[in-house]
Structure prediction request, 155 residues.
Amino acid sequence: MPNTLIIGYGNPLRCDDGVGVRAAERLATRDEEVDASPSPPEGIAVIACHQLTIELAPLVAAVERLILMDACAEGEPGTLHERNLAPAALDIGSLSHHLDPRGLLAAAQILYGRAPAAVLLTVSGGSFDYGEALSPAVAAALPQLLARIRQLARA
Prediction:
């Protein structure tokens, strides 16, 4: 059982909104052309998904540390933001669709009796248009995001 779960989420068909998914995919596999770092070590699991859903709650409750990656619309494109998270009040109506990061932690706490220490890393996006390419600023920030994720995962 892993002790750290890394989840990258977003829509990779909406340009910079896919930065979390792209980062998770690079962490999960070793792509020497893009990233010379090894795939995740023992004890670390990586998931790439479009959105946070209630189905992730048992996985979240089973780990000691949760690291989330996403894009945000605030800030200068390519800027990396980091914040620690705590469970929030859970709107039961949101369980059938998607959850925000704090709602996912709350679901894990309510349904499984525990929520791990959690951190959310976001990258300010410059383009959320239809397309698969990251904007130049976000593409340039991707190595910094990957390095910070690896640092947090090793801590």
Notes: The chain has one domain: 4-154.
